[in-house]
Backbone:
């Protein structure tokens, strides 16, 4: 589940509009994307998800129950270097996702990802994701 943290209350700070279909396609077809991720595109329909969420450059998003970060990586590319993606997994999901998420973020590959590993939602506060 994703929540776009960019709100009208911060309109002066939050600029960027949603990516258009050309920008989304560019990110999905990037040679930097892992080939194992692109193989999952047909079933996961990332073009539709990215369009539906309204994600764009410079935004901050929260990806709840992110698993191994397949969508998190797409959101990372969508928000760009000026944005952030907060990635949360609780204790149950973390048991299954730890290896994959650690591999995905190895070597600080996705520098705008902020991970909240093994943290229940109830323990997250607005200070946690500030």
Residues:
């Amino acid at each position: 589940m994703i929540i776009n943290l960019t709100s009208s209350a911060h309109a002066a700070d939050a600029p960027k509009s949603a990516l258009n279909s050309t920008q989304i396609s560019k990110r999905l077809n990037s040679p930097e994307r892992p080939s194992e991720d692109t193989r999952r595109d047909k079933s996961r329909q990332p073009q539709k998800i990215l369009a539906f969420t309204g994600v764009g450059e410079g935004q901050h998003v929260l990806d709840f129950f992110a698993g191994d970060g397949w969508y998190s990586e797409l959101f990372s590319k969508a928000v760009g270097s000026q944005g952030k993606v907060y990635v949360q997994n609780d204790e149950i999901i973390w048991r299954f996702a730890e290896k994959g998420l650690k591999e995905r973020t190895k070597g600080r590959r996705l520098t705008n990802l902020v991970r909240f590993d093994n943290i229940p939602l109830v323990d997250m506060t607005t200070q946690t994701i500030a």
